[in-house]
Amino acid sequence: SSHFGPVRPVDARAPFRTRFYGRLPRSRSMGDEPHHECGFALLRLLKPFEYYEEKYGTRFFGLNRMYLMMEKQRNRGQDGCGIANVKLDMPPGTRYINCEKSIDRDPIKDVFERAQLMAAEKLGRAPPEAKRGNSVDTTWVRENVPFTGELFLGHVRYGTDSDNSIDRC
Which residues, if any, are the signal sequence (predicted)? Predict the structure, then answer.
């Protein structure tokens, strides 16, 4: 018997959690009281980029939705915040990860304001060949403008030690 309970052979018909991770340690049973610690939010956009632009009228649907999800996690931590965005199926050599962190007084607001500013600046510098009237080509936006990917991960930090630096977010 180990800390995780008695060792048993793996049954292929067992649920995923049991089959691959074994049992949870006795000290982490469902009876433990929940504590307020860090919060995470994960968002995966499943439809094509153009769908969100047509339906919601914005190229930043994912970023806007992530902001709402992070605001709901505000009580989980106010010492820092970070978001990351991954663009899937990008051409080789194209930047496909964007990340922004903050330990400001209001880190969620700060992170999203900076992400929106970066995106707006890049969108404002679109080359003439990418512009079509008052809008910019969707493919160019997806490949060049930060935080326009399909996968978002956000984190709010509840500091449990005295080191409240940007590296900890």
Answer: none
Residue 39: which of 107, 115, 141, 127 has the closest Cα?
107
| Top-confidence residue, 159 or 56 | 56
Alpha carbon distance 27, 31 (integer Å) = 9
| pTM of the predicted model as reported, rounded to 2 decimal places | 0.73
**Domains in the chain and their CATH numbers?**
36-160 (3.30.1490.100)
**Cα angle vertex 11, ends 6, 15, to 5°?**
95
Residues 114-142 pLDDT 10s: 999 999 999 999 999 998 888 899 999 99
Task: Tell me which residue of 44, 50, 55, 34 sits closest to 154, measured CA to CA.
Answer: 44
What is the Cα Rg of the chain in Å?
A: 21
Confidence of residue 169 (pLDDT cuts 50, 70, 90): low
Q: Which helix (H) or strand (E) holds 42?
A: strand 39-44
> What's the distance, CA 51 to chain centroid?
20
Burial state string for 89-117 with b = 16 or more CB within 10 A and e = fewer than 16: eeeeeeebebebbbbeeebbebbbeebbe
